[in-house]
Specification:
Oligomer: single chain
Order of helices and strands: HEHEHHEEHEHEEEEHHEHE
Helix content: 25-40%
Distance between the termini: 31 Å
Largest sheet: 9 strands, mixed
Number of helices: 9
């Protein structure tokens, strides 16, 4: 019996997961763009997780390149600003694909905006087939529509592919707090929250549309710190790290 328990503990807690990365996780310490060292570290972590045998999909933001909301605030049309942001996510997705393939990880980028010379178009059945074949799938260009964030894209894609959980990797904090822990050291971290609590308290987990979609489909979210090596693996193995957002049942 003890031997069987050991074997079970060595297996991932989830079979199919979606990892949401912020664009800032790829940024250099100063300025914007992509830091090759940060990119390489993330690729190595993803490789270790993919080697566990689970099916892994990713959505990455574009904050290291540009934020559409900032351009909109300075007078740019919202649709144009969001389209620019969606294109920036493709840049990040291609960079991550290259870093993963240099490590021997089979990877596919599927874009919600057609650009056939660089990546595949997003087709649900194709995405699922790639996952079943053991390829890491990176979803790019958000939902393909303005007015939707990459958080919402992550929730949508996770539900479409039948993911069991969204892993929300933060590059700044190790979970969800009642206040900004960087500015206020006495801020309290939550180990567990319900979707309703996140919405009512206006906590900065994901945007309200993404949270509502997860709530409607009972899709749990685990928020954890990406900066601590091995945390992605700990999350998929079922270790209690960060903050888990789920239903109140």
């Amino acid at each position: 019996m003890a031997e069987a328990d050991t074997v079970n503990e060595s297996k991932p807690r989830f079979h199919r997961v979606l990892l949401k990365l912020s664009g800032e996780a790829l940024a250099p310490s100063q300025g914007s763009g992509i830091d090759p060292d940060a990119l390489g570290l993330i690729a190595q972590e993803v490789k270790e997780v993919a080697a566990l045998g689970l099916e892994l999909a990713l959505v990455i933001g574009a904050g290291n390149i540009l934020r559409g909301s900032e351009y909109e605030a300075r007078g740019m049309d919202r649709s144009t600003a969001d389209q620019m942001g969606m294109l920036a996510t493709v840049i990040n997705a291609l960079a991550l694909q290259n870093a993963l393939e240099q490590l021997g990880v089979r990877t596919r980028v599927l874009s919600a905006i057609a650009m056939h010379s660089m990546c595949e178009p997003y087709i649900l059945r194709r995405a699922i087939r790639h996952l079943e074949k053991g390829r890491v799938v990176i979803f790019a260009a958000g939902t393909g529509n303005p007015y939707f964030t990459t958080d919402t894209a992550a929730s949508l894609r996770a539900m479409e592919i039948g993911a069991e959980v969204i892993l929300k990797a933060s590059h700044t904090v190790d979970g969800v707090y009642d206040r900004d822990p960087i500015r206020e050291p006495n801020a309290r971290r939550f180990d567990r929250l319900t979707y309703i609590e996140v919405l009512q308290k206006n906590l900065k987990v994901m945007d309200s549309t993404a949270i509502s979609m997860c709530m409607d489909n009972d899709l749990p979210i685990i928020v954890f710190n990406l900066r601590k090596p091995g945390n992605i693996k700990r999350a998929v193995m079922g270790e209690a790290i960060g903050t888990k957002v789920e239903s109140g049942r």
